[in-house]
Design goal:
By secondary structure, the chain is mostly helical. The chain is 61% helix and 3% strand.
Length: 229
């Protein structure tokens, strides 16, 4: 007589390859401006910091190099590519197409629980600026915006936006010290509250317009006050 085992309904445990975990860590660090322009990266140094072997780090760094987020140096290390005015303007133009579109799409899909999370992220973003904490500000800026973009339901738009942010994210550190030494001055060109208010109303067009203004005015400020090669 055969004995059958009744499933418990627990489901399978997802396993994520180590190189994918490493890639996601580096991906987020770049987009959130945690890696500074000019900072050199080696697979050995990154592996040591992450407590992993060299091979998955090499695979992750190769992917980022293919996405133009990192440039190779003659000694084998990698570095963030220099930012020119032309390149920054081109990246901004693409952002102004993709990010408002994702925001408008998210407006019709985002739920009450998501809006509560966005409110916490928005408040934290404001407080980080008042605290003069550029690292915290950039991380919360990333978290706030990408919470919206992920809610758009468009993997293709999300991929395009991530690719753009891999290149522009580190340069956003240029906001630090540019407002007469007070990062809180950035709130004058910050439209996060307007974006959130529009999403809470379910007004897709207004949310996209506010997000577009946030990108455009921030870019104009950096073009006027940032340091380019």
């Amino acid at each position: 007589m055969k004995h059958t085992t009744t499933p418990l309904g627990l489901g399978m445990i997802d396993t994520v390859p180590l190189h994918e975990i490493v890639y996601q860590r580096l991906n987020k660090a770049l987009m959130a401006g945690q890696i500074r322009p000019g900072q050199k990266l080696t697979s050995r140094k990154v592996a040591q910091e992450l407590g992993t072997s060299d091979m998955p780090v090499r695979a992750a760094l190769s992917r980022l190099q293919a996405l133009k987020a990192l440039d190779p140096l003659p000694n084998g290390s990698l570095v963030l590519p220099p930012m020119t005015r032309e390149r920054f303007s081109d990246l901004t133009a693409s952002r102004l197409i993709c990010e408002p579109a994702a925001t408008e799409a998210a407006a019709g899909r985002i739920g009450k629980a998501d809006l509560k999370i966005l409110r916490r992220e928005c408040d934290g973003l404001t407080q980080a600026a008042r605290n003069q904490d550029i690292d915290d500000y950039l991380m919360r800026n990333y978290e706030f915006k990408f919470s919206i973009y992920r809610a758009s339901g468009s993997p293709s738009l999300l991929f395009l936006i991530e690719t753009l942010w891999l290149q522009v994210g580190p340069f956003l550190r240029q906001f630090s010290g540019r407002f007469n030494g007070a990062l809180s001055g950035i709130l004058e060109i910050d439209y996060h509250e307007d974006v959130l208010a529009a999403l809470e109303r379910g007004d897709a067009q207004a949310a996209g317009k506010a997000l577009r203004a946030d990108i455009a005015e921030g870019a104009q400020f950096l073009l006027a006050h940032g340091e380019f090669v």
